Amino acid sequence: MKSNSIKAILLALLTIGWNAKGDVYKESGGVVVIDAIHYDYHNFEFTDAAIPHHFHVQPDDDGKNTPDHPWGDTPDQEFQNSRSGHYLRILPDNGSNKGNCPTCPNENVGFPPYAEYKVDITTLGTYQLYLRQVGFDGGSDSFFAQILEFAPPGPGPNFYRYAPDPDGADFDALRNNPGDAATENQGWSGYAAPAPRVDGGGGEVPALYNITKAGLYTIRMSQREDGAGVDAVCLQLASLPAPSGKGPAESVVSTTAPPYVRAVDPTPGQQQVPPDNGLSCEIVDAARKVNVSSISVTVNGAKVTPVVTQNGKITSVKYSGPLFPSGQQVSWSVTYNDDGTPAKTYTESFPFTVLAFAPIPPSFAVPAGSVDTSKPGFKVRTAQTDGVGSLPQNSIARAEAALNGTLIDPNTGSSYANNATPGPNSDGSYDEPAIINYDKAPDVGHGNFLQPGNPDVLFPGLPGSNGSDDNTAMEAITWLDLQPGVYRMVVNSDDNFRVSVAPDPHDKAGLVLGEFDDPAGRGATDSLFIFVVEKAGIYPFRLVWENGGGDSNVEWFTQNVFGRRALINDKAAAGYVKAYRSGPSYPYATKFTTSPYGFAMDFKDNGGIVVNKDSVKITVDGAAVSAAVTKAGSVTSISYTSPTILTSGSTHTIGLAYNDSATPPVSHSRDIDFTVQAYATLPASYAAGAADTSKPGFSVRVNEIDAGGATVQPNTIAYTEQQLSGTVTNSATGKPYDNVATPNGNSFIYTETGAINYDATSDSGANGNFPNDARMPGFPGTSGSTDNAAAEILTYLTLPAGLVTMGVNSDDGFRLSPAASVDSSQNALTLGVFDGGRGSADTIFSFYVPTAGTYPMRLIWENGNGGANVEWFSVDSTGKKTLINDTAAGAIKAYRAAASAPPPPAEKPKIDSATIASGTITIKWSNGGTLESATSITGGTWTSTGNSSGTFSEAATGAAKFYRVKR
User: What pLDDT was estimated at residue 151?
Assistant: First the structure.
């Protein structure tokens, strides 16, 4: 839980003596260069550690123990060939990696420690950001860098991750492009991986920013790995030759700069701001000074009252108000005047998004004295089955069914047996009096809590009687003692989990506070979620966990504002949350399902309370509705179907009221919130007319890049589109990469009359859900590799009216849109997407079809390296998956053409080479078209050569000449 007093102390320390010169450096001729030690502002890590991570000026700060550097630390290594003999270094070098922190907002990008540099740009154009930055090894070399004014919702990119090569503590040895050995010993790196990549390396592209407006810009460098060092920063027009050696001289300081804003918190563009985060910045006097009395702050257009303090040329502005609303996009701004005559007014705006959180209803607190506080801990129940039925192996749905005994074996039609060893309690559970820190094998090093303080222990009841730890699930029931305030709770899991709170902890319709539910599963990883407690009390909680296969673990803990962790019920940890395993019982939902058409619930009598089904009344969003209510034994079943489909992503509240069967009857009520699954709507105007049933299947266009064994595909959809368009440039040649996929005749387009069930690396693979994978056409290419691969799959699908659910199993990314080509306006609508790298895994998505018909579809797929597969299928209401265009009953049919639709466009013409030998220029091109020439690109007249053969030669004499291919 947050400690406001401690945070206030640290925020004050952050500004003591860390203001440096406060200079603005002027760009000239499209170049601005700053030595790293001449930062405008830098700070240290927000932590309660004895020595926070900080930017250490080496060697000036070595052994220094002053108010602005009170740690007296000294690095044990020196970097070579600094421009000035002084450089910045992130210390202490104790193995911290802020790029691997999924519980940190924005993955720690732009967070302390960071250093800021202010630049004044007057020459407009596309700039490239170069860093003279290295490390000793792969664990001490990476930085994040960004220009804050480009943060979302600005033009982007939000940030770049720099991972220099080679490592070796020599600034002069730095490559411009880490993936290109030909740029070694250049001394600068202008290539980095764009957001959202925060990993340790790969995916580097030119670090570009298109500056279209003159003014002041803020370059912020923040820690990824400690131990890294930076010597200088260069922002220059991308059209200029890359800096080399020590680089250009440092730029001059502006003598005309206005007062400006720096040290903005939250980081502009941050996507996960905690709701109790305050707002702060500094206004710095430059050639002109700020009029302190003129400063005002607004939050989403509403004026608020900040705390303003001045210390010399620095004016601090802080605001701390009520909690920001959950998930809200916020834009706050500071407005101020300078001291000129007449005064000039400035307004700086800073956007961010609040991390979604849940306020726990006070009514969920159980009555005082109803919890047995002599029984600390949890009730833990486990399950292990021999199969997964029709549900994804890694899914909370599969875990719930296994725990309920309702996971159906499709071979027998009966439930799988639970192979876990049952506990001694009547419900098969175990008493866990201590903590949740479980692993399939003790002390194997998964998660955060390890030996000697918190050794992992085996899951109760596992492995199963068949000796397996696959297809496992666990339920942990407890009552947590909570005080008013903001809580940061974390589950580290391999694979999925869900934490909920409800009047009874067993309730399946409880308020979900946090979850990770991905068919791809994951290794041991933290998931942070935030909730707010309004009333002190003891609240019923439920943790559900599952493992598909391989390693498995789960930890359940809280962390304070500094990130300090405490396992729930760990009495040895400061600030731990108390947990109890025995509390009161109330009726609860044993099943709760929702869809865009309504909901269904089974409500079980419990704790001596028997529901009178005839008294049940249901409201939706406060309005009474007609729901079907039946009862069998102790379970009351309630279902409601909306007369119209509910809006995608909309949130609704179910009001459940009933009387019990006591004499006299007692009235009970509760509210249950649910959010409609996200779905796209497919406009009827997108229909393409009747399908051409003589052309079943798909048109598959393939592309592959030969990067000499290196991986250049950064696993993003944006890059995939560039690759498919043939516009990815080889930095070594300055020309687009050739398509080295195996051609189909004179094109790279193949016809697939069956289904999309491809493996690019095997002729009969078994990746995904469907066996007997077919070899993806065109791969491996002429390089013998399947790396850096992409495909575009075009078809027309005959779809029924209503909600359609589909899935794509892919390794790596994909995107599905209702378009017949990339140029179609319909390509802007996304039906399903996974934008990133992964092993073979499902992404399930739904879309609404108001009118039955035949619709164009465009599926693109990519693979960076390693395994590579793609399956495209539909999913019915029972969870059954069927390949698109399969021969199986119920398969959605696919066709390569539709009666009223134009044929898919052929690939665009492309110039493959242009060479001059013996005074003759020879030009070769592919994909058709006629070669044209002109003596000027701007204003010149293009003249046809009359040649459309794909090869053309003529004398290379006279004035400059330009060529293009036009079709």
Answer: 87
Angle at 505 between CA 503 and CA 511, to 5 degrees: 65
336: β partners = 346
Q: Is 643 exposed, middle or buried (0-12, 13-18, 19+ CB in 10 A)?
A: exposed
pLDDT above 60 for 905: no
User: Within 13 A of 303's CA, how many CA atoms are on the CB side?
Assistant: 3
What was the pLDDT predicted at 203? 85
Q: Please tell me the distance from the alpha carbon of residue 936 to that of residue 943, in angstroms, as a whole number.
A: 11
For residue 92, cis peptide bond before it (omega within 30 degrees of 0): yes
Largest CA distance in the chain: 107
The pLDDT assigned to 520 comes to: 84
Per-residue model confidence (pLDDT) at position 104 = 65
For a pLDDT cut of 90, what percent of the chain falls above it?
68
pLDDT over 90 at 417, yes or no: yes
691: Cα separation from own chain's centroid? 38
Determine contact, residues 118/235, Cβ cutoff 8 Å: no
CB 471 within 8 A of CB 402: yes
Q: Which of 18-27, 278-287, 576-585 has the lowest mean pLDDT?
A: 18-27
DSSP state of 877: T
Q: Measure the CA dihedral 195/200/203/208, to 10°.
A: 50
Residues 6+ apart with CB under 8 A from 60: 37, 86
CA proximity to 648, closest of 682, 623, 672, 619: 682
Dihedrals phi, psi of 351, to nearest 5 degrees: -90, 155
State how far the Cα of 938 lies from the Cα of 786, in Å rounded to an integer: 41
* Tens digits of residue pLDDT in 96-120: 888 776 656 667 788 889 999 999 9
Reported as a single tens digit per residue, the pLDDT across 49-67 is 788 999 999 999 999 998 8
Is the CB of residue 720 less than 8 Å from the CB of residue 790?
A: yes
At residue 74's C-alpha, the angle toward residues 73 and 76, to 5°, is 140
Ordered alpha helix ranges (H), 642-746 = 717-725
Mean pLDDT of 437-449: 84
Cα–Cα distance for residue pair 844/873, rounded to 1 Å: 9
Select the more confidently predicted residue: 590 or 11: 590
11 by DSSP, 3-state: which? Answer: helix
Of the candidates 904, 660, 883, the one whose C-alpha atom is nearest the C-alpha of residue 770 is 883
The span from the CA of 429 to the CA of 678, in Å, is: 36
Burial class (CB in 10 A: 0-12, 13-18, 19+), 76: exposed
Q: What predicted TM-score, i.e. pTM, was given to this entire model? A: 0.73
Three-state SS at 481? strand
Q: Tokens 């709760």 identify what position?
A: 592
Half-sphere exposure of 954 (CA within 13 A, CB side): 12
**Host H or E run for residue 17:** none
Nearest 5°: phi and psi at 686? -80, -10
Which sign does the torsion angle of CA 466, 469, 471, 475 carry?
Answer: positive
User: Is the link from the previous residue into 812 a cis peptide, with omega within 30 of 0?
Assistant: yes
Are the C-beta atoms of residues 682 and 688 closer than 8 Å to each other? no
CA dist., res. 229 & res. 133, Å (int): 6
DSSP designation for 398: H
840-846: average pLDDT: 91
Q: pLDDT tens digit string along 929-965?
A: 788 888 776 666 788 887 777 788 887 777 678 888 8
3-class SS letters over 751-762:
EECCCCEEECCC
CA 141, distance to chain mean position in Å, is 23
Q: Which residues contact 92 (CB under 8 A, 6 or more apart)?
A: 51, 53, 73, 226
Q: What is the DSSP letter of 415?
A: B
* Radius of gyration of the chain from its Cα atoms, rounded to whole angstroms: 31
- Predicted confidence (pLDDT) at residue 11 exceeds the cutoff of 90: no
- Collapsed DSSP state (helix, strand, coil) of residue 613: helix
CA dihedral 439, 444, 447, 453 (to 10 degrees): 100
